[in-house]
Write a structure and sequence with these properties.
455 residues, alpha+beta, L-fuculose-1-phosphate Aldolase, seven-stranded antiparallel β-sheet, 14 helices, binds zinc ion
Amino acid sequence: MDTLAEELARTLRVAHVLGLINLLGHLSVRIGDRILVTPGRGLGSPPPNRITASDVLTVDFDGRVLEGSYRAPRDLAMHCAIYRTRPDVKAVMHSHQPEMLAFGLVERELLPVVHLNADQVQSPLPRFGQGELLTTATQGEALSRTLGDAGACQLPGHGILVVGAGLIEVLTRAHHLEELAKMNRLASPLGKLNVVSAAEAARIASQRAGMEDFRDYYNSLDPGPKPAPAPMAPLISIKGVRERVALACHVLHRFGLVNHLEHVSHRLPGQDRFVISPRGDMGKIQPEDLATVDLSGNWVEGPLPPPPFRFLHRDIFAARSDVQAIVHTHETYGRIYPAAGLSIPPVHRIGANLVEHTLPVYDVPDLIFDEEPRRAVVALLGQGNIVHERAHGTDFVATNIEEALAAAIHRERLAELHHRALQLGRPRPLPAYVLERLPEELPSAGEWWDYWTGL
Ligand SMILES: [Zn+2]
Ligand SMILES: [Zn+2]
């Protein structure tokens, strides 16, 4: 028989497999007058795919950590307030699940278009906040009042909160809400929809066999805790740089930002040289495949020729002594917004700070091989961290590869979320006071790196 901590850890791992949780999100369960909760973020804290029962924290209803080695989630106050005011609630999950996030950004109700969760959306889900991190008891209590006796609450611009009588019920509800939100979005251009009525929804809810069959199904999805990735050679070594560039290529490929014509480059420590990924399947690039190039652009080492685009990377390294890493992507959403002459609005916490400044765009479709366009692109980049080449791609530069990778992925995800929400209505950007606080509230690029490279 599993302990409750084992069940909690497993349910979080399954929520991760289902795409409901990524690095961010947490889950808790009531045990007497205490709460078991998955750890908050912080260096060394295991991401959801690596979590085990021994990582789980025990906290009291005021959020004080009684047992556990990691920090509690910063917004634990949400869980505590709900347990204090809702005796029926035995488990709480906070997630940033993408389809529900899109609905949170617009004034539009989820319609019960399918039987799953039809009873949960007979009246509109409550909504709380404008993207804040809810860290105080006062905020938690206000959220709890807004939640009332509902099973879930939208946190627009941030995520959702799901509550229930147990861990599997919460997981099932979150998963079914996500499916329902996706079906609502896909059905949105089709006109008026036939829905499940309140009476039909009540009948279906009573027909549903307990949660046992759900439990078996969801438990069967558990891949078990993943081991932490093997430590890399130090960044001050050539081997360490090569390993990081290859890993960055794999992560970008996994998230669909690159295929085979894009590149990642990194300066070599103590040398006027850099390594760059050659043309080829970026999901399979190995550290030894990278080409070494000098600051004149000459190919000095490596089994495969460096791409012609290396000259732009060379120019950026020559112009910007602070830049250590460059990520060049041919992404999807991040290219269609500039194509439409639109900026990506800061509609969600993650990535919002990346789109605060106007995107510099080189407005001539070109491969940027020749000197004149290269000079123009470097000038547009200036002292910034991003430059876009219209109808071509985007360059992210940074003092470390973690930052460049995080910027590329977060910007693409943010654009994708906005695009989803745009199919549903008029998504609202985060207010200025929320944007201001984000840099100190969000995980570092290093934490994202640790999570992504361990997937
Ligand atoms: Zn959150
Ligand atoms: Zn390109």
